[in-house]
Design goal:
single chain; alpha/beta; seven-stranded parallel beta sheet
Length: 778
């Protein structure tokens, strides 16, 4: 009711705003800033702001927002998720909350699921904000810059994040956030405060992509030579005899017979001895790469490189690699060049990233079904907004078949029937390889078409532009789902509108709603059809045992399934899939909370270093941080001149020479070590002979110590998460075990920072290039 009352007040100002000249309307921004500064009643400011930007949309874009779009904007402004059906103009809805939030907060973000959509919306509506006197930026990575070796442009990023409204993808924002945290000085920090973000397709970002880690990688690890030989070996294995897979096929392991075969193949007395643990690890990775990860579903090969795919929409995950050697195992499997395995410097998940914002809102066409999870995890309620025009799209009941072949034949018959009627057709598939299979069959039938998948993503805009024409046939992965706007020609509408054909039961109901939502937008005509089989992934993963007998008995039949129980298994499998995904997200959130807490401590240490403005402060901090290392040395046993000498060489001065005073030092070793510390620091300072550069050197040494230890901690936390899950078999709660082990590792890393700060600053060497200090670690 509150939103509708506000809408009524906004509508009352419609004629008043329309009567303003352009300059008078643009002046409303200045007026609103003054109202905010005077702390006038927020409701009055909302009414003024929304009525002003509504009229600006009309003048600049030629689009006067509907009452439903204004309601959506109000829901978002007040911290809700607005469920706005596909085709209802979410790009325009976003202008309302972004305009006013920018006036209140300074910098706000419109976050989309990929760079293509962020650029598209920036180009579509960005001029409205500029016309009203606000600064706006396209925060995506320009396409020509998306190449390996592109140097990160800090000046450009600073200009982007200084803008009041930023259009950006979740991936770009995440990587920028991680890079900004790794800044070695204030000059290379560029990111503004995370006040407010409006997430477009909020359920994909906060739910479907929640656990996806964004990873900044650093120096190469020592390359293993086990990848290829492990890949060659696992090709010889037989499923169930040498290895087994879990029912949902997300894990794989060796049987005893498989281990015996490996012992014979590699001529080893025992594969599970500690001496052969590294080989065993690589064999498990090779198993996962060959039997769990599928080409053209989980990854593609592009120009001789393995590129990961997003299972939800089939897009390439640019810059992403699987960790812990799994990516290299896929490369060995595919026979492409094996890239170096790298250290993880920093990492964050999307759910972790967006919980850092002070305020969060969202919009999506499919949010209501997940409202409970949004409330429990992010404290976000969902408000459903009615469509402006009645939806006249007809959704036909799914047709279910036993085999993939029968489903394929029925699907092709439907495509041919609709093509004969000149209907534009959008055929949605679950993977790249299935999209290519349908393409091959359509070619054999003489039906011209376009294919939109990860391999053709550079032509996405052109393919979508053509998809709404009479007789156009477009085969697509779920890339043509969220955010895709297929404009129908008049002739196409007269022919019956867009026909969407979904070719399999998807893992999530929301994915199907999004796919079907391409048709019947804004009151247009359209139809949707669904074809499913017992060989669809969701059935194989979650219902295989229940329907196996029926499948074995009827697999040769090509007719539709009539058995009610079997037909219900499709919905049940999808429900199990959704529940499994929800459970995984909740568990990941618990593990993430530990990571967030520990990362905040490392970030505090980093910020303390960056804030130093004198060498005396830096030296004092290094000495104070060195105390745990010195305490450990002094407390572990009797101090001798030899042990004291060894400690000095390891941490303070590797050119130190023994002298008579070393024997006197045994009476007060801590004071003696401080003297050596001060002498060594003084020599380092003399080498630089520049106070500013020396401070830079000291800060760089401390920062590298912190970053190295956090990198090591990330690796530990990732491994721990995998290990503790197995402890549930011993009646232990994985999250409690994780907390215990993570704390132990954290304490160890803090002690390691103490050592590395000493080593880096006292034993490190420096070079000066272009007024900057380059640190060579000891």
């Amino acid at each position: 009711m509150r939103l509708k009352k506000l809408l009524k007040k906004i509508n009352q100002l419609k004629d008043e705003k329309k009567g303003l000249t352009d300059s008078q309307l643009q002046f409303q921004t200045i007026k609103l800033r003054e109202m905010i500064e005077r702390k006038e009643k927020e409701e009055n400011i909302v009414v003024e702001a929304f009525s002003s930007i509504r009229e600006a949309n009309s003048r600049v874009l030629g689009l006067f927002p509907t009452d439903e779009q204004v309601l959506g904007g109000l829901a978002i402004y007040y911290g809700k998720i607005a469920e706005i059906k596909t085709g209802e103009g979410k790009s325009l809805v976003a202008t309302f909350p972004l305009y006013l939030k920018a006036l209140y907060l300074g910098t706000v973000f419109l976050v989309t699921t990929n760079d293509y959509l962020a650029r598209r919306d920036y180009d579509r509506v960005g001029k409205v904000y500029q016309w009203m006197g606000l600064s706006i930026a396209d925060g995506t990575n320009p396409q020509e810059d998306e190449v390996e070796g592109h140097e990160f442009d800090f000046k450009k990023k600073k200009a982007t994040y200084a803008s009041e409204i930023i259009y950006i993808s979740n991936t770009t924002l995440g990587f920028d956030y991680l890079i900004n945290l790794l800044a070695e000085n204030q000059e290379t920090k560029f990111m503004s405060s995370l006040h407010f973000a409006l997430l477009d397709e909020v359920d994909q970002i906060l739910l479907d992509s929640a656990q996806q880690p964004l990873i900044i990688s650093g120096g190469d690890k020592v390359q293993s030579n086990y990848y290829q030989v492990s890949s060659d070996f696992v090709q010889l294995l037989q499923k169930n005899q040498h290895f087994k897979m879990s029912e949902d096929q997300d894990s794989v392991w060796f049987t005893e017979e498989g281990i015996e075969k490996a012992k014979w193949y590699f001529s080893l007395p025992s594969l599970l001895d500690e001496a052969y643990f590294l080989l065993y690890q690589h064999l498990v990775l090779a198993l996962k790469a060959r039997y769990l990860l599928k080409k053209n579903r989980d990854y593609i090969i592009e120009r001789g490189k393995v590129k990961l795919l997003d299972r939800r929409d089939g897009r390439i995950l640019e810059g992403n690699k699987l960790q812990s050697g799994l990516h290299q195992s896929i490369e060995a499997k595919e026979g492409v060049a094996i890239t170096p395995e790298t250290n993880t410097i920093s990492s964050i998940t999307y759910q972790n990233l967006f919980r850092r914002f002070e305020q969060l809102s969202g919009m999506s066409g499919t949010a209501k079904v997940a409202e409970d999870e949004f409330i429990n995890t992010y404290n976000l309620k969902v408000v459903s907004i009615k469509t402006h025009k009645k939806n006249i799209r007809k959704d036909y009941h799914s047709k279910t078949y036993i085999s993939f072949e029968s489903k394929l034949e029925a699907t092709l018959e439907k495509v041919y029937e609709l093509y004969e009627k000149k209907r534009p057709i959008l055929l949605i598939t679950g993977s790249v390889d299935i999209s290519e299979l349908f393409s091959m069959y359509l070619l054999s039938l003489g039906i011209p078409h376009n294919v939109l998948n990860a391999k053709s993503s550079v032509k996405e805009a052109l393919i979508i532009e053509e998809a709404g024409r009479v007789g156009a046939v477009t085969i697509a992965t779920a890339m043509a789902g969220r955010g895709t706007d297929i404009k129908l020609s008049k002739a196409a509408q007269e022919a019956g509108g867009l026909a969407v054909i979904v070719t399999e039961r998807m893992m999530n109901k929301r994915f199907e709603i999004q796919a079907k939502g391409r048709a019947g937008r804004q009151g247009e005509p359209g139809n949707t059809y669904s074809f499913e089989s017992l060989e669809d992934d969701v059935i194989r993963l979650y219902m295989q045992n229940d329907i196996q007998k029926y499948y074995d008995k009827h697999r040769q039949k090509s007719s539709q399934i009539k058995n009610t129980r079997i037909k219900k298994s499709f919905s049940l499998a999808q429900k199990i899939s959704e529940e499994r995904a929800y459970s995984q997200r909740i568990n990941a959130l618990k593990f993430d909370n530990v990571s967030i807490l520990q990362k905040s401590k490392f970030d505090e240490a980093r910020s303390e270093v960056l804030a130093l403005n004198s060498t005396s402060q830096a030296i004092s901090l290094i000495w104070n941080n060195a105390q745990p290392t010195i305490d450990h040395f002094l407390n572990k046993g009797k101090i001798t001149p030899e042990s004291l000498y060894r400690f000095i060489l390891d941490y303070l001065d590797y050119n130190y020479q023994l002298s008579d005073r070393d024997f006197d030092a045994l009476e007060n070793p801590r004071a003696f070590l401080k003297t050596i510390f001060e002498e060594s620091i003084e020599r380092q300072k003399h080498r630089v002979n520049d106070e500013t550069l020396f401070l830079q050197f000291l800060k760089s040494g401390m920062i590298k110590a912190i970053d190295f230890c956090w990198s090591s901690q990330i690796e530990v936390l990732n491994q721990l998460q995998a290990v503790v899950n197995s402890r549930s078999a011993a009646q232990k709660r994985p999250i409690i075990e994780f907390n215990k082990e993570a704390q132990k590792s954290y304490d160890n890393q803090r002690n390691e920072i103490s050592k590395l700060m000493l080593k880096n600053t006292l034993l490190g060497r420096m070079q000066i290039k272009k007024g900057k200090v380059l640190l060579t670690l000891p």
